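tokens incoming
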């Protein structure tokens, strides 16, 4: 990073010294933007504004559990940037949620949403509520209490939340119901809704499918493909499940999945039947991934070490790695293990799952590396398609949505690839995605007087 960018970065740290995840996300983007500012010095002012959230909302979420005991959680919505469209981004319910994590996610979302080519600004929100082990009734009362405050800050043309870790179809349903009751109107204010009340076909699949479409494009630049490739996937939630499905569709062999308790290694490969079993385990029975190893022969289960909690999975010998669980789940050492096993490509399904040391290790060793803000953009892109369908009061077929999703992912790949070349960093998708995502937002901010 040069001295100009370093001064922007130092001011970000000075303002919020205790936000390491946010600093990490900002540092990577500022690093990428050095050649842009050299070519367009006028954009330095934009950079100084783009690292500051437009608005941060924090609120109390009180709720009663099934025993009548009272709990208080903290709710947030970070409205980071609205230069190119309404704030758009998911809600995360996880005990680790704090302002640093949500600011990093909202910041990344600004560039990701820009890359989709759709008119969406960037936002993120959530709560330190832990849905694990809670009954449906408890989750419903929590969601209703959360929305009793959030509803006044969002709207179909203002801010459109969706799912993320711990927030899936069940939670979106409860949140939508309470929004509708309070606002007294039926609008497309959330995405990831159920099919019967305005949800889009393919939205549940979109992040995982999009990830694999992107990775396929990236592999093709080196005349490689998923056909016959062994694939390590982490996580076993929404993104991991549908990444697994699309890898199978393209002839690859997924051999791992995980949750926060541990990971499974199935050398024979996770086929459609096993994946259906896992989807039922995770989405209906809400069980642990260990049960997969208990149920199927020849599967090995390894419990997590406390920190880093996925340690071990990345030592499995694979051709392609798709981290789909959470931030900083592949550190420098784990990246080196993948490199030692001659991994061809790593594509981020999660947001920022690779530490800066891991990214550096992949790039230094010629591994194809796709940053999440490009490779996991299929989820929010399809949310954008859900917003369009809601505005039109129409719904498109599965094929129509999937074709649009695929076209968007191919285009994001092309844009990131060509932008990296243009700025003299061929094959560097991190730089390409950051620069391409930035330029559209920067132009809009400048045209609008950087309000
Ligand atoms: P889910 O809640 O559906 O699944 C998350 C999975 O990751 C679970 O298997 C969970 O295990 C595991 N996990 C979560 N936190 C940790 C942790 N701290 N350590 C180890 N394992 C963990 O979430 P999603 O699949 O929706 O999201 C996964 C990632 O993808 C996140 O980074 C999210 O931001 C990103 N993403 C999601 C999109 C979407 O459309 N849903 C779009 C783009 C990115 P356990 O159940 O034990 O907690
Ligand atoms: O990180 C993400 O892009 C998401 N969680 C999806 C956001 C959305 O609005 O669909």
């Amino acid at each position: 990073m040069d001295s100009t960018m370093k001064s922007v970065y130092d001011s970000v740290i000075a303002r919020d010294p205790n936000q390491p995840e946010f600093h990490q996300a900002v540092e990577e983007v500022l690093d990428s933007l050095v050649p842009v500012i050299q070519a367009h010095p006028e954009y330095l002012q934009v950079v100084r504004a783009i690292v500051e959230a437009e608005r941060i909302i924090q609120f109390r979420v009180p709720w009663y559990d099934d025993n009548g005991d009272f709990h208080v959680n903290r709710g947030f919505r970070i409205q980071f940037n609205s230069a190119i469209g309404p704030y758009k981004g998911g809600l995360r319910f996880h005990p680790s949620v704090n302002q640093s994590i949500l600011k990093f996610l909202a910041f990344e979302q600004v560039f990701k949403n820009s890359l989709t080519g759709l008119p969406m600004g960037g936002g993120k929100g959530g709560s330190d509520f832990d849905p694990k082990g809670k009954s449906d009734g408890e989750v419903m009362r929590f969601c209703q209490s959360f929305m009793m405050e959030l509803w006044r800050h969002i709207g179909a043309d203002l801010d459109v939340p969706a799912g993320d870790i711990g927030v899936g179809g069940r939670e979106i349903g409860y949140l939508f119901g309470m929004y509708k009751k309070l606002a007294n109107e039926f609008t497309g204010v959330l995405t990831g809704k159920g099919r019967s009340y305005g949800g889009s076909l393919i939205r549940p699949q979109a992040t995982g499918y999009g990830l694999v479409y992107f990775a396929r494009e990236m592999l093709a630049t080196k005349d490689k493909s998923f056909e016959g490739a062994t694939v390590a996937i982490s996580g076993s939630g929404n993104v991991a499940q549908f990444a697994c499905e699309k890898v199978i569709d393209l002839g690859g062999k997924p051999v791992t999945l995980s949750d926060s308790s541990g990971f499974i290694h199935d050398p024979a490969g996770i086929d459609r039947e096993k994946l259906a079993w896992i989807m039922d385990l995770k989405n209906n029975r809400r069980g642990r991934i260990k049960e997969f190893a208990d149920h199927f022969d020849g599967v090995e289960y390894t419990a997590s070490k406390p920190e880093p909690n996925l340690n071990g999975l990345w030592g499995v010998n694979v051709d392609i790695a798709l981290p789909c669980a959470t931030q900083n789940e592949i550190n420098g050492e784990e990246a080196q293990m993948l490199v030692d096993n001659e991994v061809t490509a790593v594509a981020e399904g999660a947001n920022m799952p690779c530490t800066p040391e891991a990214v550096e290790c992949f790039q230094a060793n010629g591994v194809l590396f796709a940053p999440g803000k490009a490779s996991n953009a299929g989820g929010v892109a399809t949310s954008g398609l859900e917003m369009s369908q809601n505005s039109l009061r129409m719904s498109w077929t599965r094929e129509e949505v999937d074709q649009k999703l695929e076209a968007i992912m191919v285009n994001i790949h092309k844009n990131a690839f060509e932008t990296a070349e243009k700025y003299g960093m061929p094959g560097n998708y991190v730089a390409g995605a950051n620069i391409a995502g930035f330029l559209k937002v920067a132009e809009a901010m400048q045209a609008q007087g950087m309000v």
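note: Residues 206-366 form a domain with the Rossmann fold fold (CATH 3.40.50.720).
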